[in-house]
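> forwarded from #structure-qc
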């Protein structure tokens, strides 16, 4: 563990003194024309002159920090904020510290050099250390600790990595706490296990609960994250309790001020749809989101070929972790709100069991008319969709007909609105992706979605559907839709370097001709 030492040097002046056996001799040691002569050692233009030192004579005099290369014994370390480096002198005989190494250069979570001296600034009045993570991830500054109370918001003290503050991992791939469920950071600190990374990693971070409830105002500035800071009660009042702070401007860009949206378990919510086997019985839902909201799953297939640094993305085409949010079903709460979650297989609302209803269309924030909706893909990592604008019932294309994924419906003769051109229960996608040379130019038709977890060749959702030659259609998971060989994507295991295949493909599939 690196300890920061502050070496405070003191500048001293050595006084010149002289003595003589006969202090009364006026033409000897004390002669005004000798050592103490006004034009000699104590001359106003010489070393010990206090009232008017000469800058540029190469000697650091009283009133000067330095002079040329004379620093009066001082070095960068003596100036209080530097750990080393090269001290220089300005033409005005003042210290130039531009070549000195700062005593600490990086705040918590910033990249650092493990071989550099005093790289990391203290946090919460405790030293920080430059911790090497891996060859790919590099090293970051992390606060030292003795227990979790030292670490601040959402961090715990990890003894296994040298008593450093780090997020609490959760999920089946970590401590066993299921994703999208409450978790504990110890010492009475509760949180919610929010999935991160890919679905097959089955790992999340335990986000510590704040005090702000669902629908209340919150603050989440990415440039000033509360992570790792010891917060006041007022600051905790702007952090969500079992939720996340969602803020967007009109263009969908994130903002610091937002609204708390409660976290939910989207897998359990969609599993609850299967409980409704009798259409004559009241609809049963496992969605426990607050009133005027419903659980939406934001899991999606990662289509970014490179990461933020421009390097190849190791998780390319892998499905992201399931992430459920209680999204408002009404407008005006957060930008983009007014979302009704639905089951892509049945087209029915997961919360109420009803078919997608017309939704108000807003222009410049004002509702102008209602527009028909059907259940369509919101994110491609889940069977939970959203009721979105569609063409009128009489003008929709049936199953198997060609369609345009970029179709727009024109309202009032001049207002274009992106809308689905297909019948309820179908999606506009490449109709035969396994035989298409290029998906970008492949023919698109209205195809039937299917639950890929129920199998490929004998999937009940594709039962009775055949290709042009009369062969049964198969259920193709969208995890195989974009890969060049239409097999499940592969990546290199970060720990072992061995290849590994996607083990948690999206349950969303489409009925297509087999190879």
């Amino acid at each position: 563990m690196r300890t920061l030492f502050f070496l405070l040097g003191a500048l001293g002046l050595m006084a010149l003194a002289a003595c003589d056996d006969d202090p009364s001799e006026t033409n000897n040691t004390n002669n005004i024309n000798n050592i103490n002569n006004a034009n000699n050692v104590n001359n106003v233009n010489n070393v010990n002159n206090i009232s008017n030192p000469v800058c540029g004579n190469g000697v650091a005099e009283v009133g000067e920090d330095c002079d040329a290369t004379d620093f009066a014994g001082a070095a960068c370390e003596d100036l209080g904020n530097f750990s080393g480096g090269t001290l220089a002198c300005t033409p005005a005989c003042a210290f130039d510290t531009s070549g000195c190494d700062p005593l600490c250069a990086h705040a918590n979570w910033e990249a650092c050099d493990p071989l550099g001296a005093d790289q990391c600034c203290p946090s919460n009045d405790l030293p920080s250390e430059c911790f090497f993570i891996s060859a790919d991830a590099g090293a970051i500054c992390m606060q030292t600790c003795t227990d979790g109370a030292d670490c601040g918001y959402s961090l715990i003290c990890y003894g296994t990595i040298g008593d450093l503050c780090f997020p609490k991992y959760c999920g089946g791939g970590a401590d066993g706490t299921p994703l999208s469920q409450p978790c504990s950071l110890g010492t009475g600190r509760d949180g919610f296990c929010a999935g991160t990374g890919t679905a097959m990693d089955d790992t999340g971070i335990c986000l510590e609960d704040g005090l702000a409830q669902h629908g209340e105002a919150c603050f989440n500035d990415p440039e000033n994250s509360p992570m790792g800071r010891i917060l006041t009660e007022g600051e905790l009042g702007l952090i969500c309790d079992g939720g996340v702070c969602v803020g967007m401007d009109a263009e969908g860009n994130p903002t610091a001020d937002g609204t708390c949206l409660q976290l939910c378990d989207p897998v359990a919510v969609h599993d609850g749809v299967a409980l409704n086997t009798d259409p004559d019985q009241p609809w049963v839902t496992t969605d426990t989101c607050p009133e005027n909201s419903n659980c939406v799953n934001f899991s999606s297939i990662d289509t970014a070929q490179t990461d933020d640094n421009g390097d190849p993305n190791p998780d390319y085409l892998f499905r992201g972790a399931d992430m459920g949010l209680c999204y408002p079903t009404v407008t005006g709460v957060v930008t983009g709100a007014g979302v009704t979650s639905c089951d892509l297989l049945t087209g029915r609302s997961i919360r109420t069991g009803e078919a997608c209803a017309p939704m108000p269309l807003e222009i410049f924030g004002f509702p102008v008319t209602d527009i028909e909706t059907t259940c369509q893909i919101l994110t491609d990592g889940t069977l939970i969709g959203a009721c979105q604008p569609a063409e009128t019932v009489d003008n929709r294309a049936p199953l198997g007909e060609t369609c345009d994924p970029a179709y727009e419906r024109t309202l009032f003769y001049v207002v274009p609105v992106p809308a689905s051109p297909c019948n309820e229960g179908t999606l506009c996608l490449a109709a035969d992706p396994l035989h298409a040379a290029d998906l970008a130019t492949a023919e698109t038709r209205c195809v039937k979605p299917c639950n890929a977890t129920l199998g490929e060749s004998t999937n009940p959702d594709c039962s009775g559907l055949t290709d042009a030659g009369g062969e049964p259609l198969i259920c193709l998971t969208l995890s195989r839709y974009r890969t060049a060989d239409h097999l499940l994507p592969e990546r290199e295991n970060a720990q072992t370097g061995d290849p590994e295949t996607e083990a948690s493909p999206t349950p969303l599939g489409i009925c297509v001709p087999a190879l």
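QC bot note: Residues 265-389 form one domain. DSSP finds two helices and 31 strands in the chain.
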